[in-house]
Amino acid sequence: MCGIVAYVGEREALPIIIKGLKRLEYRGYDSAGVALLDKEGLSIYKKKGKVSELENHLAKFGDLGSKIGIGHTRWATHGEPNDVNAHPHYSSNEKFAMIHNGIIENYDVLKTDLIKKGYEFRSETDSEVFIKFIEDVYVNNYCSLEEAVRLALHKVVGAYAIVIMNLEEPDTLIAARKGSPLVIGVGEDEYFLASDATPIIEYTNQVVYLDDYEIAVIRNNKLQIKTIENVETNPYINQLEMELEAIEKGGYEHFMLKEINEQPRSIADCMRGRLDAKNGRLVLGGLRDYLNKFQNAERIIITACGTSWHAGLVAEYLFEEFARIPVEVEYASEFRYRNPVISEKDFVIAISQSGETADTLAAIELAKSKGATIFGVCNVVGSSIARATHAGSYTHAGPEIGVASTKAFTAQISVLAMMALKLGYQRGTISEARYMHLLAELETIPSKVEKALKLNDKIKDIAWEYKDSRNFLYLGRGYNFPVALEGALKLKEISYIHAEGYPAAEMKHGPIALIDQEMPVVFIATKDSSYEKVVSNIQEVKARKGRIIAVVTEGDTTVKHMADHTIEIPETEEAFVPLLSVIPLQQLSYHIAVMRGCNVDQPRNLAKSVTVE
Known about the structure:
globular
């Protein structure tokens, strides 16, 4: 979850690293640091807090000219956020410096052994243990640092992406990965390393994605990649399609607000080249080779975390309604710990915005070992999940920088809806007339999202009224139950207000005890098959003096007379309502968080890409 950046070449390293860390700060912002080969030797500068704190600290030291350096922005795992626990970390002799993203599970065993050998530790981190273990291998095997890294990795248990500098090799960087992402940017006589491509795209669009159990050595302007078994591989250079403008705020106050407002375009981009309603065409290239397995599957298993899990819950309704195949939606973080029953007749869909979610990757590996077919739905080209699955579809939502997912959710549902329609049509469980109608309606969603976004000012007024509330309840039924969960999650993530999402009918089985005149209750009460039931639930809350905010279908008059506030969204097919009903909930959480003075893009304790278990 931490962000790492490194550079070696002819440019000044520090400005590149600082800018890169700022672009990666959504991955962690507890502390930051850099290591440089400057006039003082191999020097480390680090500071608790955001990258701006590090930048202010570095200003005290004057010119720190260096053509090589490594940098890190931290999401704390082992040890609290402070200057000492910040990365990079030195070896004992201070000849090596290392940055690390991941968790070393056997660090305690390694540390105990190193202490017996006389090593001392300044920090509480597993990362300091890691570099000193590499140092110990280096000293005791009389080998090169590159070889010491390779040997050490055979003994390390856990996840890592590391980059190491060596005082005695001022033009060399050594990197390795397992379970945590690492991208190498290839320029002219220069190289950039980072946790993802956002710090690299400004300088080059040529990248190499390092695979698990690979070690990269950059020396004398040359890149060499070997496996930890010491087998050299030929690096495959990918061309990035990302534009620099996509990772800038573009005039918006926050990335989250920008990404909320990008949804008409991101959903359209997701459908572009795939959906042609006029001619009744729906093409998902990633499914082509596995369509037969998909339509003959006995069961679909969807595995994901967080917002992606909510998208998976929507997909459960979609697949069961249109394709008539049973679906199970699993938390990836629990999936492999309960010895699940999986067979080669199962079709597993793994959903992840980043494509790097550690729990989802672990679930994929388990399902693959049981013979299931794995299909990935993710946003980041070249990500670990994209490479670990048998096939997949990219959402094409563009970079999502805000920690709280918004456009990723609607893009994922868009892909999953197209998959469900394709599968239902292939299986003959929806008629051609119904299929054509649904394609046509799905094609209208971007324009309807654009219309829903115009309610922003009204939602801002509602937010002002409830910004000081201590609790919220979100209720929905059917397709809108996952939307209630997602709305509650968004509010929790960025405003730190306690919120819970429930199926509306479950309110009477406990949560109704919480309702009084201080409790705002958000209902998703659109005109669908559950409408009358939800209206009854609204009346139950109103009878107990709850404050009601209702998301309704445009033109609704029934709920308007019951609710304290109504938010009207365009009418659409019931199956596609989540793509619209979630929009005002995103806006509501955003405005409440801003009014409360919260850091919307970088909420406390969270990071964008959860690459550790």
